[in-house]
C-alpha cells in the first residue's frame, strides 16, 4: 500500500511530506529484519527512499513502541485486567519504551508543524520506558491479586519461528492476526539485550514533553486496569 501512496503523492505534486505507517517497534534497528514480520516495513522504507530521490518529497517515521493505554484494558499488553494475569517473558528486566495514543497523535501534529526539522528520519516518541519487573509492583499497588505467568524466552522464540515457517509453507499471506506474527513481535520487545531497540529512551525527541514521570504511570495504571 505504501508504494502506491508514494506514487500518488509524487503524481499529485502538491504533497510535500509523508508520515510513514510505523507507530510501533523500531524498524530502523539494524537487526530488525531478523524478525520477519518487520521485513515488509523495511522493504517499503527502502522503496520510499528510492522513489523520492531527486524530488522535493520528504518523510518522517514516528516510532512509538506499544500503545499501552489502548492495549492494557483489552488485555493485549501482557497485562490482562480481565483475568488478572501478568505475563513475564524471560527475566522481566528488559525495558521497553511505550506510548499513549494521545502522545502518538501529538507527535503527528509536531512533525507536521515543522516537517523540515524532522525530515527524512525516524522520530522517537514514548511516555515511559519500563521493564515488567518495574510494572509489577505498580500493578499490585493499583489492583492486588495478580497471577504472574513466566515464559521461557528462548522456547517462546523457537515456537514463534516454527509457526512462522509453518504458515509460510501453508501459503498464508495475511499474517497480521496470526499467532506467529504476535509472538515474533513480543520477542522483539523482550529480547534480553535490546537487540531490536525496544528500549529507545536515549533517542526520544527532546523538548516536546513526551517523557513522563513514573509516578504519572503509577496513577494511570489504576484506571487502565479498572481498579476499584
Description:
- The chain has helices at 2-12, 39-51, 68-74, 101-113, 115-118, 132-142, 153-170, 179-190, 214-224; strands at residues 17-20, 58-63, 66-67, 79-80, 85-89, 95-99, 121-124, 128-131, 147-151.
- The protein has 228 residues and is of the alpha/beta class.
- The chain has a single domain, classed as Rossmann fold (3-Layer(aba) Sandwich).
- Strands 1-2-7 form a 3-stranded parallel β-sheet. It has a 3-stranded mixed β-sheet with strand order 3-6-8. A 3-stranded mixed β-sheet has the order 4-5-9.
- The longest helix has 18 residues, at 153-170.
- The chain starts with a helix and ends with a helix.
- The model has no long low-confidence stretch (mean pLDDT 95).
- It comes from Exophiala dermatitidis.
- Keywords: NADP, Oxidoreductase.
Amino acid at each position: 500500500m505504501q508504494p502506491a501512496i508514494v506514487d500518488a503523492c509524487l503524481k499529485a505534486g502538491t504533497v510535500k511530506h509523508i508520515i510513514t505507517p510505523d507507530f510501533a517497534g523500531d524498524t530502523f534497528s539494524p537487526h530488525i529484519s531478523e524478525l520477519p514480520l518487520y521485513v515488509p516495513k523495511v522493504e517499503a522504507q527502502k522503496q520510499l527512499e528510492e522513489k523520492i530521490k531527486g524530488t522535493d518529497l520528504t518523510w518522517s517515521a514516528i516510532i512509538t513502541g506499544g500503545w499501552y493505554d489502548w492495549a492494557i484494558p483489552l488485555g493485549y499488553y501482557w497485562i490482562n485486567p480481565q483475568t488478572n494475569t501478568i505475563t513475564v517473558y524471560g527475566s522481566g528486566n528488559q525495558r521497553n519504551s511505550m506510548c499513549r495514543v494521545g502522545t502518538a497523535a501529538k507527535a503527528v501534529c509536531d512533525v507536521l508543524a515543522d516537517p523540515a526539522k524532522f525530515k527524512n528520519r525516524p522520530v522517537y516518541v514514548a511516555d515511559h520506558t519500563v521493564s515488567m519487573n518495574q510494572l509489577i509492583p505498580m500493578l499490585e499497588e493499583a489492583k492486588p491479586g495478580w497471577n504472574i505467568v513466566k515464559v521461557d524466552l528462548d522456547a517462546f522464540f523457537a515456537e514463534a519461528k516454527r509457526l512462522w515457517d509453518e504458515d509460510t509453507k501453508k501459503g498464508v499471506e495475511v499474517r497480521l492476526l496470526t499467532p506467529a506474527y504476535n509472538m515474533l513481535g513480543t520477542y522483539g520487545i523482550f529480547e534480553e539485550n535490546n537487540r531490536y531497540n525496544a528500549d529507545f529512551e536515549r533517542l526520544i525527541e527532546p523538548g516536546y514533553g513526551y517523557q513522563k514521570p513514573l509516578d504519572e504511570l503509577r496513577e494511570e495504571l489504576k484506571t487502565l486496569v479498572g481498579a476499584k
